[in-house]
Amino acid sequence: MSTWRPISHPSWWKRLLPQCLHGLVVLVFQLSVLGGVVFCGLVFFYFMQAMRFDMSEVAKLSAGTTYYDRDGKEITAPGGSGRKLVKREDIPPFLVNSLRAREDARFFEHSGVDIRGMARATIRNIKDRDFTQGASTLSMQLARNSFNMKQKSLHRKFLEIALTLRLEAKYTKDEILTHYLNRIYFGAGADGVEQAARTYFGKSTRDLNEGECAMIVGIIRGPHIFSPFRNLKAAIEQRDQTLNRLIAMGIIDEAHRDAIMAQPVKLVSEEQRETQASYALQAVRRELEGILEEEDVRLGGLKVYTTLNAAWQNRLEVELTHAVEDLEKEKSWPYETEESHISGSLPNYLQYAAVTTDTQTGAVLALIGGRNFSHSRFDRTRSSRDLGSAFEPFVAAAAAERGKLVLPGKPVQTGRQIGPAEVARLAKRCGINGPFLQTEDLFRGSVAATPLEMSVGLATLGNQGKRARPYLVRQVREATGEVIYKTKPVLSVALSPAAALDAASVLQKSGGTHCFTGATGSERDAWTLRLGPNGATAIWLGFDKPAVIAPESRLKSLLDEFVKRLGNN
User: Fold this and answer.
1) Tens of pLDDT along 315-351?
2) Do both 120 and 185 map to the same domain?
3) 566 closest CA partner among 306, 217, 323
4) Distance between CA atoms of 70 and 82, rounded to whole angstroms?
5) DSSP 50-90
6) Quick one: which of 245, 451, 478 has its CA closest to 355?
């Protein structure tokens, strides 16, 4: 009885190849199978990871930037943080084409992931040995921004691709385009394209002309550095680059481009710009823009924790307003008052500005840039005004630093002991930038400074000669709560502790507070310096168009009464 056995035949590929290559082919085949299994495993893994995300979140836009005071209480800021949404039918075709030309030329052709673009980027990254190229499509950018994935790693990239494929399966191309433009940050506090159009050009997205569409798109890659409010030249360059890419895509020709470039750029005026509705928040926004540029943050929905002490700021505003109104109510008052200001004219009623900084850290506790933000957004805390007798503490500081005698109330005699050059040098170290006269008139206060500089200089005297860099933003968090920026106080030694103590001796002591009130010889500017346990306050009083306020004796009595009302805080 015989047993049947199969007859083995050599594989067809073995007959075609030399025997020495058979082992190599088998190895390659086995590695290919293993690679396929690993690939399928990775696909399954990232598919499961992507399933953990709720795709409906893409359409749920985060709120605008929210601001908090030093105690964590939200600061109300109408007009600057609300996100305005745009519908697909309101987006001009030229804006869509500009966006494609600049960010994703094949947006309507690919399935969310541009394989050709990724291949080019991969080759470039291998050459650079870094993630210098991302090849992100609009869909990938939307997925990344919606789910807050900023880390540059292969894991993040694979997860981003998986999320993008899910996003493309759930939303149409038009929906993706609309969500993208509604979500991204365009600088100047503008979250989304509709708010950007209103902020920069004072019109709705649907009304943007072709040049404005190209400029809006050009802002996307650098919303802080390409904002036309910050750098109009750079914004125009980005617009022109977008137009040149439209030519390369065959959407417009050179003649069309030249016609667009010839159109004047009409930005909204400074008085019409949508911004935070107070001097303090305007200053916070200004500082925040610099931080975001440095940290390369492009998303809205941020939580900004400021250094502002809302209670102290309100108290300063109330007491300053009362003091000024008392002066204006006097029968001899010859000038316009805020109450009599006629809308549409340029007011020149009595103004004030004040800054309080923490003596030890430089944190700005209060900032008042003027009397009425709705009348004028000009921040007077950054405007230099004549100091007069308010400069005496820094003459005293310079003399004390050189071991000379401080003579309170006699700044000329004090300054003569060391000369103008030494006084100027020490004043600069304390934060007063000048320019300084090289004559004895400097000792009499013939120098100008801003309220911010005076507050920093006064805080230096109260901090044993250590000068702190002023700041308004102490921490920035994303909507998820992740801290993306935190300020560290920066201190530098300006003068010795003994000299700082001697300089403070020219200030009048009242309880735990040291104060100085006085006016310039021209009686056009009045100052109050107040060094308290919790901060250094510099207050300026005067007109935008310089004019005599009142006799120096009347100003001094008014300011002394104001200081008494503030108490010893």
Assistant:
1) 999 899 888 888 888 877 777 776 655 444 456 788 9
2) yes
3) 323
4) 22
5) HTTS-GGGGGSPPP--EEE-TTSPEEP-TTTS------GGG
6) 451
| CATH number, domain containing residue 443 | 3.40.710.10
Please indicate, yes or no, whether residues 427 and 539 belong to a single structural domain of this protein: yes
471 DSSP 8-state letter: B
Would you state the pLDDT for residue 342? 45
357 in the same domain as 230:
no
Residue range(s) defining the domain that contains residue 439: 313-331+348-566
Average pLDDT, the chain: 83
Domain of 224, CATH number, reads 1.10.3810.10
CA 488, 492, 497, 500 torsion-angle sign: negative
Choose among 136, 464, 501, 148: nearest CA to 299.
148
- Cα-Cα-Cα-Cα torsion 201, 203, 206, 211, nearest 10 degrees, comes to -20
Taking a C-beta distance cutoff of 8 angstroms, is the pair 235, 219 a contact? Answer: yes
SS3 labels along 367-403: EECCCCCCCCCCCHHHCCEECHHHHHHHHHHHHHHCC
The pLDDT-based confidence of 80 (bands split at 50, 70, 90) is: very low
Q: Are residues 207 and 321 in the same domain?
A: no
Claim to verify: residue 508 and residue 448 sit in the same structural domain: yes
Enumerate helices (H) and strands (E) in the chain, giving the number of each: 19, 15
Q: Answer yes or no: is 171 within a domain.
A: yes
Q: Give the span between the Cα atoms of 92 and 29, in whole angstroms.
A: 53
Most confident of the ranges 67-81, 108-122, 500-514: 500-514
Cβ–Cβ < 8 Å for 371, 350? yes
405: DSSP letter: P
Residue 47 makes CB contacts below 8 A (sequence gap 6+) with: 162
CA gap 149, 481 in Å, rounded: 14
Total domain count for the chain? Answer: 2
The answer to whether residue 97 sits within a structural domain is yes
In this prediction, residues 450-461 reach a mean pLDDT of 96
Which helix or strand (DSSP H or E) is residue 473 part of?
A: strand 473-477
What's the confidence (pLDDT) of residue 222?
Answer: 85
Predicted TM-score (pTM) of this structure: 0.70
CB neighbour list of residue 348: distance below 8 Å, 6 or more residues apart: 335, 336, 543, 544, 545, 547
Tell me, yes or no, whether 111 lies in a domain.
yes
Q: Is residue 269 located within the same domain as residue 317?
A: no
User: Would residue 92 count as lying in a domain?
Assistant: yes
> Where does a domain end: 258, 274, 290?
274
